[in-house]
Amino acid sequence: MRYFLFCVVSWVPALWAQTLPLEIGRGEREGTVVIAVPAGGAMEGQLELVYRVMGAGGEVLDQAAETIPVRVAASQAVRFVRPLPVVAGAVELRVALTVRPAGTQFAGTMALGGATFQVDTNVALVPVQVQKSAGSFLTDLGAEEIRVLEDGVAREAELQIVGRQGPAAVPVDITLLYDRSGSMGDAGAYGAEVFRKGLLDEFPNVRIAIYGFSDQLVRFTAHTRDVEVLNRASGLVASIAPRSTPLFSSISRTMGGFDLARPAVRVLMVLSDGVASPFDLETSGSVLQTARRAGVAIYPVLVATPMPAKAPLLRPPPPPRPRTTSKKKGEPQPVNETADVEMRRLQRTRQTMGDGMSIAGYRRLAESGGQLLTALPTGNSLPGLFAEIAKTLRYSYVASYRPSKGTREVKVELVHKKRGKVIGGVRTVVR
Q1: Under a CB-based contact definition with an 8 Å cutoff, are residues 65 and 49 in contact?
Q2: Is the pLDDT score of 214 beyond 50?
Q3: Cys bridge to 372: 222, 254, 366, 386, which one at CB 3.0-4.6 A?
Q4: pLDDT grade, residue 75 (50/70/90)?
Q5: What is the pLDDT of residues 127-165, one digit of tens each?
């Protein structure tokens, strides 16, 4: 459906100051706007186009301008197709054109009125995928095929595919969080081609941020599409000295770096071996809850340390001689090493159990709507991980609905279960 809004014709005595109505409407291709200069007089020159995206209070939220050679015939309108700007909180698009040197001016306004659902900050976004089989996802899911349940009650919702390109695409913010503890391998500095070819070229709606942690959490860059900034940030990750591993608390703090007021798909990709410091284990239980409240899909990348080369077979070492001590000079007494050995064994067992609990908790973070991935700690790991994220974005959808006030548990389900298996589609919405 197309909508048109004509401005009132305003005539003033001087020809070069006259303002004529401009026709503005949505293009046949989604995410575009058509600007039509009406016929009425032959003009030739430069068309100076300025469009402004306005907020509810009349403030200018965004503005762009361009100059186009134009020839307007007396009996034929001239049409321009441009991307439809999408800005959170925008309510209308105002366009002003001036033809030089004739000086004729045109103006028009179009109400955005929900051109794309993500411009409304009162709208909750719930990312979801539908898997047909291992590695195969639905690409033709329709809004009528899903139900959005808020505390078990069905709510009216819209559906949009994340991987669709164009100015109306759903914004996606991706954060890379590097574990720089001693057990981790090469963090790697990656060139521009990794960021550009991996995500930015294919998805004009994606921004990337880079964090790292050991004793302290460091943000190297906020979300950006500037590849030079990303390159510099990537090169600085290795500057973090490898010390302790406050893994789960660092993940929680990193989620605070997302702009939660910006309606967007939020992805946190953590590169870690999953082993947290013992004092940090107690915070692991709250991370998943925080992710669901913030609408962050965590992709825990389990960095697997390469297996060492097999050692050559050697003769077993001779048994150690019994240690002795003496209470009195000249009276040696055998030392009972059983207690020492048992203590060391108990310490190793506790550490192994703690590491196992930590890794299990790390794996469970994928229940936030992400996916558990595995990588070797080499400089070549990031391109492969970006390929996985890109694949996810291509086949991901976002269900959108207006949440009720309060804290609500939201779940997306299929109307017909045989269509596939829902991946993600779970969120805690607080309004």
Answers
A1: yes
A2: yes
A3: 366
A4: low
A5: 888 888 776 788 788 888 999 999 999 998 888 877 665
Mind listing the domains of the chain with CATH numbers? 15-115 (2.60.40.10), 119-306+354-430 (3.40.50.410)
- Per the CB < 8 A criterion, the answer to whether 198 and 382 are in contact is yes
3 state SS for the chain: CCCCCCCCCECCCCHHHCEEECEEEECCCCCEEEEEECCCCCEEEEEEEEEEEEECCCCEEEEEEEEEEEEEECCECEEEEEECCCCCCEEEEEEEEEEECCCEEEEEEEECCCCCHHHCCCCEEEEEEEEEECCEECCCCCHHHEEEEECCEEECCEEEECCCCCCCCCCEEEEEEEECCCCCCCCCCCCHHHHHHHHHCCCCCEEEEEEEECCCEEEEEEEECCHHHHHHHHHHHHHCCCCCCCHHHHHHHHHCCCCCCCCCEEEEEEEECCCCCHHHHHHHHHHHHHHHHHCEEEEEEEECCCCCCCCCCCCCCCCCCCCEEEEECCEEEECCCHHHHHHHHHHHHHHHHHHHHHHHHHHHHHHHCCCCEEECCCCCHHHHHHHHHHHHHHCCEEEEECCCCCEEEEEEEECCHHHCEEEECEEEEEC
| Predicted confidence (pLDDT) per residue in 32-50, tens digit | 788 887 766 666 777 788 8
Residue 204: pLDDT band with limits 50, 70, 90: confident
Angle between helices 338-364 and 247-255 (to 10 degrees): 20
Q: What are phi and psi of 339, to 5 degrees?
A: -65, -40
Q: What is the pTM of this model?
A: 0.61
pLDDT at 273: 87
Please determine, for residue 405, whether its predicted confidence score (pLDDT) is greater than 70: yes
